[in-house]
């Protein structure tokens, strides 16, 4: 049988579509041997994966293997289970989208950035629907994002103005970029602007809560005119961190860890200890107090993750 390879450009439940090297799109399904070797749900192909296999016929590829992933964006499945749900693979940059209305939620964005750091990709915050606020209100929102998410780029956009050049700078030929965010924050609208076509359906904002109606129900990979590839994903509200690595938190709070290195005591809790550089940074305005409070709230989850990783490491020795 003829061997072939391609990239997963669509994935929804048990259905996938593969883009071959010649640009043609065919259906894809995993082989029986592949299913037997799978250890967890996240081992199955997701959008962005490069897959190897053979052609069962001219319209279908049997997937036998996935090439090593450069990055893997995932989240915990809903409920109490600890399984990972794959979102996208081989992504270099993730646009975390939030709209400039009631959907704006720093705690939720914090969880989005954590799963992006964990994936191996780079997060970029994209504030959409900026036409809904005044210029002064927009300045406050951007400043809040830049302060809360130290070191993460912030881009602004709306459907009435050209796409921000800063945002376009991440769209390089051959790179894969993913959009994540809550339902109806404008991911599909922004994608249509980048594609210069109304590929993804969009809906008007609901009057009762100012949120856009959810439109994307499966994951798609699209190729932009310049050769960059973008993945649109369904909206997410529940972002469990049970499957994340502790290193993802290290990225999120690097500014606090850097300050803590200069504390007088190596075991400083940053509460009332003398010589605490974290508390001093808060008092002088060099560290936002709400960032530190968020760090304290997440410490319990971080301790849980580190304990789980230690148990796993002991079992594999």
TrEMBL record:
<keyword id="KW-0547">Nucleotide-binding</keyword>
<keyword id="KW-0694">RNA-binding</keyword>
<keyword id="KW-0342">GTP-binding</keyword>
<dbReference type="GO" id="GO:0019843">
    <property type="term" value="F:rRNA binding"/>
</dbReference>
<feature type="binding site">
    <location>
        <position position="263"/>
    </location>
    <ligand>
        <name>Zn(2+)</name>
    </ligand>
</feature>
<dbReference type="GO" id="GO:0042274">
    <property type="term" value="P:ribosomal small subunit biogenesis"/>
</dbReference>
<dbReference type="GO" id="GO:0003924">
    <property type="term" value="F:GTPase activity"/>
</dbReference>
<dbReference type="InterPro" id="IPR012340">
    <property type="entry name" value="NA-bd_OB-fold"/>
</dbReference>
<feature type="binding site">
    <location>
        <position position="276"/>
    </location>
    <ligand>
        <name>Zn(2+)</name>
    </ligand>
</feature>
<comment type="similarity">
    <text>Belongs to the TRAFAC class YlqF/YawG GTPase family. RsgA subfamily.</text>
</comment>
<dbReference type="InterPro" id="IPR027417">
    <property type="entry name" value="P-loop_NTPase"/>
</dbReference>
<dbReference type="Pfam" id="PF03193">
    <property type="entry name" value="RsgA_GTPase"/>
</dbReference>
<feature type="binding site">
    <location>
        <position position="270"/>
    </location>
    <ligand>
        <name>Zn(2+)</name>
    </ligand>
</feature>
<keyword id="KW-0690">Ribosome biogenesis</keyword>
<dbReference type="GO" id="GO:0046872">
    <property type="term" value="F:metal ion binding"/>
</dbReference>
<keyword id="KW-0479">Metal-binding</keyword>
<comment type="subunit">
    <text>Monomer. Associates with 30S ribosomal subunit, binds 16S rRNA.</text>
</comment>
<keyword id="KW-0699">rRNA-binding</keyword>
<protein>
    <recommendedName>
        <fullName>Small ribosomal subunit biogenesis GTPase RsgA</fullName>
        <ecNumber>3.6.1.-</ecNumber>
    </recommendedName>
</protein>
<comment type="function">
    <text>One of several proteins that assist in the late maturation steps of the functional core of the 30S ribosomal subunit. Helps release RbfA from mature subunits. May play a role in the assembly of ribosomal proteins into the subunit. Circularly permuted GTPase that catalyzes slow GTP hydrolysis, GTPase activity is stimulated by the 30S ribosomal subunit.</text>
</comment>
<feature type="domain" description="EngC GTPase">
    <location>
        <begin position="89"/>
        <end position="237"/>
    </location>
</feature>
<feature type="domain" description="CP-type G">
    <location>
        <begin position="81"/>
        <end position="239"/>
    </location>
</feature>
<keyword id="KW-0963">Cytoplasm</keyword>
<dbReference type="GO" id="GO:0005737">
    <property type="term" value="C:cytoplasm"/>
</dbReference>
<keyword id="KW-0378">Hydrolase</keyword>
<feature type="binding site">
    <location>
        <begin position="181"/>
        <end position="189"/>
    </location>
    <ligand>
        <name>GTP</name>
    </ligand>
</feature>
<feature type="binding site">
    <location>
        <begin position="128"/>
        <end position="131"/>
    </location>
    <ligand>
        <name>GTP</name>
    </ligand>
</feature>
<dbReference type="InterPro" id="IPR010914">
    <property type="entry name" value="RsgA_GTPase_dom"/>
</dbReference>
<keyword id="KW-0862">Zinc</keyword>
<dbReference type="InterPro" id="IPR030378">
    <property type="entry name" value="G_CP_dom"/>
</dbReference>
<dbReference type="GO" id="GO:0005525">
    <property type="term" value="F:GTP binding"/>
</dbReference>
<dbReference type="InterPro" id="IPR004881">
    <property type="entry name" value="Ribosome_biogen_GTPase_RsgA"/>
</dbReference>
<feature type="binding site">
    <location>
        <position position="268"/>
    </location>
    <ligand>
        <name>Zn(2+)</name>
    </ligand>
</feature>
């Amino acid at each position: 049988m003829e061997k072939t390879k391609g990239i997963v450009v669509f994935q929804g439940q048990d259905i996938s579509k593969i883009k071959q090297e010649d640009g043609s799109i065919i259906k894809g399904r995993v082989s029986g041997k592949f299913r037997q070797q799978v250890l967890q749900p996240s081992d199955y192909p997701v959008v962005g994966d490069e897959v190897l296999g053979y052609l069962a016929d001219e319209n279908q590829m049997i997937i036998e293997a996935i090439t090593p992933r450069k990055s893997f964006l995932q989240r915990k499945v809903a409920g109490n289970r600890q399984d990972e749900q794959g979102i996208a693979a081989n992504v270099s940059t993730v646009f975390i989208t939030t709209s400039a209305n009631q959907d704006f939620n720093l705690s939720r964005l914090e969880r989005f950035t954590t799963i992006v750091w964990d994936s191996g990709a780079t997060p970029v915050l994209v504030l959409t629907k900026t036409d809904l606020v005044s210029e002064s209100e927009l300045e406050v929102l951007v400043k809040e994002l830049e302060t809360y998410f130290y070191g993460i780029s912030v881009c602004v956009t709306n459907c009435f103005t050209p796409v921000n050049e800063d945002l376009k700078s991440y769209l390089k030929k051959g790179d894969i970029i993913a959009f994540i965010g809550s339902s109806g924050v404008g991911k599909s609208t922004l994608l249509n602007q980048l594609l210069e076509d109304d590929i993804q359906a969009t809906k008007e904002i609901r009057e009762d809560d100012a949120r856009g109606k959810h439109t994307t129900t499966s994951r798609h990979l699209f190729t932009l005119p310049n050769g960059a590839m973008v993945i649109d994903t369904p909206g997410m509200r529940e972002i469990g961190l049970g499957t994340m690595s502790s290193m993802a938190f290290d990225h999120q709070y690097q500014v606090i860890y850097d300050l803590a290195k200069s504390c007088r005591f190596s075991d400083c809790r940053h509460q009332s200890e003398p010589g605490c550089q974290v508390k001093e940074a808060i008092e002088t305005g060099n560290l936002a107090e709400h960032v530190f409070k968020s760090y304290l709230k997440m410490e319990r989850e971080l301790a849980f993750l580190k304990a789980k990783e230690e148990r796993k490491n002991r079992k594999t020795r």
